[in-house]
Write a structure and sequence with these properties.
By secondary structure, this protein is α+β, with helices and mostly antiparallel strands. The protein contains five helices and six strands. Helix 2 packs parallel to helix 5.
Length: 185
């Protein structure tokens, strides 16, 4: 039997359990600080074209590249490349633009992941009102992180899992790109 002392506690506990999924979904992404740091590093580059590329750690044939449009967006691609020695040579020469182009056009198709970070401020699962939304193109299947999981024909749980998985992968790519960007700035 509930006493008056435990009644309010039980109500508060139930309320907290109901609100927990919403609070978890509203958390900032893990990629936000890294995306901002990469954007800042690329801001220090001279010239109109702000590009960086890197080899992904622990994989002999996977690379990443980012093209940055100051204050606007960060377009990041990661993929395996069938002739990694060519991209390794371009990386040595700091020919980042060509690596970016190669990863977009000549990479192993099923391995390609393209992330559009509008705002260059990290991924957001649900953008603020009237704000542009981030997206990921994973081997030809695009997921828009516009907060409308029903339009994407996903459950909210599946949508948030897709976001969390993409954000986790984006963190790894940003870390590799930051290492290279710090060498050149």
């Amino acid at each position: 039997m509930l006493s008056i002392r435990t009644g309010p506690r039980a109500v508060l506990l139930a309320f907290a359990l109901i609100c927990l999924p919403f609070a978890a979904g509203a958390q900032d992404s893990k990629s936000a600080p890294l995306a901002k740091e990469l954007a800042s590093a690329l801001d220090r580059q001279t010239g109109d074209m702000k590009v960086v590329a890197a080899k992904m750690p622990g994989t002999p044939d996977q690379f990443a590249a980012a093209m940055y449009f100051p204050g606007s967006q960060l377009l990041v691609v990661t993929a395996r490349y069938s002739v990694p020695v060519l991209l390794t040579e371009r990386l040595t020469k700091k020919d980042y633009r060509e690596i970016y182009i190669d990863l977009n056009s000549a990479s192993v198709p099923d391995s390609k992941v393209m992330i559009s970070d509008l705002g260059a401020d990290g991924l957001k699962a649900k953008p603020a009102d009237n704000s542009p939304y981030d997206s990921v193109d994973r081997a030809g299947k695009v997921t828009a992180f516009d907060g409308d999981w029903k339009k994407a024909k996903l459950s909210e749980t599946d949508y948030m899992k897709a976001f969390a998985d993409t954000d986790e992968q984006y963190v790894k790519v940003l870390q590799a790109l930051l290492v290279e960007a710090k060498k050149t700035s």
